[in-house]
Structure formats: C-alpha cells, structure tokens
Amino acid sequence: MPELPEVETVSRQLNKAISGKTFKSVVVHVPKMVLPLSAQDFAQNISKKKVLGVSRRAKIVVISLSGKHFFLVHLKMTGQLIFVPKTGKAVVGGHPQRDGGRNLPNNYTQAEFKFTDGSTLYFNDLRKFGWLKLVTEAEKNIILDPHGAEPLDKKFTLNIFTELLTKYPNRTIKQTLFDQHLIAGMGNIYIDEASFLAKVLPTRKIFSLSKSEIEKLYKSMLTVLKLSIKMKGTSARNYVTSTGEKGGFVKYLNVYGRANLPCTTCGTKISKIKHAGRGTHFCEKCQK
Ligand SMILES: [Zn+2]
C-alpha cells in the first residue's frame, strides 16, 4: 500500500495537473467504489464542480471542490490516478501500469472524469479495494478526523510524539507506528527504515525505550519521510509517481526489502521476521 510519501507525491503532482479545471462528466464503472452515493448521484453531483486544489491527509488524497465539497480518494493496494491532458504526456500516480497510462480506458478503469477543457482523469484499480467519495465539509471531517497526527506538521513536536508513542507502553514500535489513529501515514517501509536509523529494533516494547532512543526514533522518522518525499517515494512492487517514474527512495533503503543482504553499516546479513503481521527487517548488530 502506498504510504505517506507516496500519497504526498501523487497529491502534489495532481495539484499541479488538475487545479482550476472543472468536471464536465463522470462515468463510474464500479458503483461500490463511490458508496454511499449511487453512481448516478456521484456523477451528477461532481459535474460542473471546479477543482480548487489537491492535498493529502493520512493516506487519503483530498481534492477540494467549489461549493464547499470534497472529493476524497483512497488508493488502497492497487489504485492509480492517471491524468491525461488533451495533448501531451499522461500523468500517472499510484500502482504502476504496464502500458504507462496509454490505451485508456482499459479493463482496470473503474471511473473516468472528463474536464471541460477536454482532459481526463482516470481511476484505475486492479484489485478494486480503493474508494472515491464526494462529501461535504462535515462529512469530510468525520472521515479524516479519526486519523492520527500528521508527522510532518509543524505542530508534531518531540513532546507530542512521545505522548502518542507511550500511550500503549506494552506495544512494540512497529505495532504503535502502524496505528493510524495515533500517527497517520506510516507503514511497513518507513517503520523499518526509521527503526534502523534510530538503532532500535522495531520489535522493541515501548516501555523499554530510553528518552534518547525515543528522540532518535522521532528524528529518524522525520528524516526518512522527508527524504522519501524528496525522492518521490519508494517503488516497492506497487507504486510509481504521477509522472510514471519509479520512486527514487529505493536507493536509500537500508533494511526494507534487503533480507539476507549485507547491512549498509556493519555488513551483517539483514534479518527478516514476521512481526505484527508484517515482514519486519532489521540488522541484529546495529539495532538494539
Ligand atoms: Zn548492521
């Protein structure tokens, strides 16, 4: 699943591509994706609305519309937003597609949004877990508010991080950072990488962490998220940027996806175990 840096990258690129455009017509091929609205109501209500801007909250793409409405998109496992201008190159974000966004619509196209200027936004989703919601501001808040703190927000200080992290002292680092109600947007890649930089095992119980280890974890988390956004995300199996490139953070991975390869710091083979239901990567020598 795309994590914070990947959704941030897609949102920033879409913001440039579709801000100021007005929806003309919409075709929804998979009605369950736009629930609770019917496909017909969804299409009718979004038509004539203008895109004011695109941002991100947690792992959700937030498209602000005229008339105080919002169009929310969750890419889930394999969702992809592809913007095709009237002329020029397609802009693709999310799950990679073999043909790089040509030959659209195709078998995986679940919804098509035509703009008044002749350009089109396609939502493709191989596994159909993604969703699209057209909501009012109050409805948007009900969906977004339960998500935890935004780690890149200026208000997200070490004190706030410590307070959230230590809320459940018997949980492990991985269990805690995965909890989207505490801190939003973290996933497997960035939890393993932040733990490596902080020299702590992701399987460590929170109560066992010293003050300085918590501070290192906080700084490491911000470091990996910021670097990854700068590099336009990580391409594991399931992500390309909205220009269709693979994310550049993959070059900076120290542990994730590197089981049995030598540690970049000490040369010890990177371990991989299953923890909290996920493949968990670490160096047993560098991390305590
Ligand atoms: Zn090592």
CATH architecture of the largest domain: Alpha-Beta Barrel
Structurally, the number of domains stands at: 2
Report the helical percentage. Answer: 25-40%
Number of helices: 7
Radius of gyration: 20 Å
Question: Strands of the biggest beta sheet: in what spatial order?
Answer: 1-7-8-5-6
CATH level-3 fold name of the largest domain: N-terminal domain of MutM-like DNA repair proteins
Order of helices and strands: HEHEEEEEEEEHHHHHEE
| Bound small molecules, deduplicated | zinc ion
Structural class: alpha+beta
Instruction: Characterize the main sheet.
Output: 5 strands, antiparallel
Characteristics of this structure?
single chain; alpha+beta; 4-stranded antiparallel β-sheet; binds zinc ion; 11 strands; 2 domains; Helicase, Ruva Protein, domain 3
Describe the 3D structure.
Helix content is 26%, strand content 22%. The chain is an alpha+beta fold. It folds into 2 domains: 4-144, Alpha-Beta Barrel (N-terminal domain of MutM-like DNA repair proteins); 158-282, Helicase, Ruva Protein, domain 3, CATH 1.10.8. The relative contact order is 0.15. The model has no long low-confidence stretch (mean pLDDT 91).
Brief write-up:
With 288 residues, the chain is an alpha+beta fold. Helices cover 26% and strands 22% of the residues. Residues 263, 265-266, 268, 283, 285-286 line the site of zinc ion.
Please give the structural blueprint.
Blueprint: H1 4-18, E1 23-28, H2 39-46, E2 51-57, E3 60-65, E4 69-74, E5 79-84, E6 91-94, E7 109-115, E8 120-125, E9 131-136, H3 137-144, H4 158-165, H5 173-178, H6 188-197, H7 211-230, E10 271-275, E11 278-282
Antiparallel strand pairs: 1-7, 2-3, 3-4, 4-9, 5-6, 5-8, 7-8, 10-11
Helix pairs in contact: 1-7, 4-7, 6-7
